[in-house]
# Entry
Amino acid sequence: MYLRKEEYRIHNKNNSRKLNIVFDTSAFLAKYHLQLPRYIVKIYTVPRVVDEVRDQENKEALELGIETKMIEVIEPREDFRRKTIIKARKIGEHVSLSKTDIDVAALSLQLKTIHDKVIVFTDDYSLQNLLYHMGIPFKPLRTKGIRKARKYRVYCPVCGYVPADPSEDTCPICGSKLVKKHMK
# Structure
């Protein structure tokens, strides 16, 4: 993957400004960090993503990127993690997102307060939906990605319970896992 000339000019109006990219696990498994030019981009990720890369070949490629300072691993601040969880609950995605997804979104939100240009590389549709609602651009890698934002209603598929508190993920009546349904 490479940036076209016009994309380079947009992202490099000022030579000191780089495109700040946050990678989720799928980006590292595709080894995208080895294909991007260092003078144009700065790559970030979270510790949970590093832990998810387990096979030897990808682990070595990731460690090389970290050692050469091409990749910076940052734990997102708790206040950004809380904001992200609140937004995920508001749109009904909290039941579909992993802790890693929440951390990736929180880090991208945190970086957005510092840098002009932040983009997340991910194929995860729920994470893309959350980012869309947060106003953070994303780039799908091997999928088409989402085309529009969606909101979901969370409910119990067994007894129909609808939680008043969006932090619930199990039904207090029957103990079933709550699920989400697209709201039109």
About this structure: The first helix runs from residue 5 to 11. The chain has seven helices and seven strands.
